[in-house]
Amino acid sequence: MTILAAYVPSSAGRAALTFALNEAATRGEDVVVVNASRGDALASDHAMSPDDDARIRTEAERLGVVVGIERVIGAESPASQLLAAADRVSASLIVIGSRGRSTVGKLLMGSAALEILSNARQPVVTVKAEST
Q1: To which CATH superfamily is domain 2-128 assigned?
Q2: Which of 26, 58, 85, 121 sits most deeply, having the most CB atoms within 10 A of its CB?
Q3: What predicted TM-score, i.e. pTM, was given to this entire model?
Q4: Residues 6+ away with beta carbon under 8 Å from 107
Q5: pLDDT one-digit tens code per residue, 20-66
Q6: What is the CB neighbour count within 10 angstroms for residue 106?
């Protein structure tokens, strides 16, 4: 079984990744980290850097978790790309990060998170980023 973690280099992305790796270690599952974006993602601040890749692999190794990393750039929304990846790897769980939002913001959750929660075939865990 595989846990899929949505990752962008942000506090929310790191929170999702940490949860996914720890959950995988507990369950004895692998993790696939997906960094998805639309269009020219290499110029985006949402794209993973080589340092992000190295940190993820080091943390997974420390926990004894097998990790795969996918960078997906396409015409579809990042949420659609993430959902397709979850189906492709037969994910048992999808983990996404959440920025802390106001009461109104919580009702109007981001469009990517809403698309994932509304359309995922798998259970979805939303992890709140720590406040800084």
Answers
A1: HUPs (3.40.50.620)
A2: 85
A3: 0.87
A4: none
A5: 999 999 999 999 999 987 765 455 667 888 999 999 999 999 999 99
A6: 10
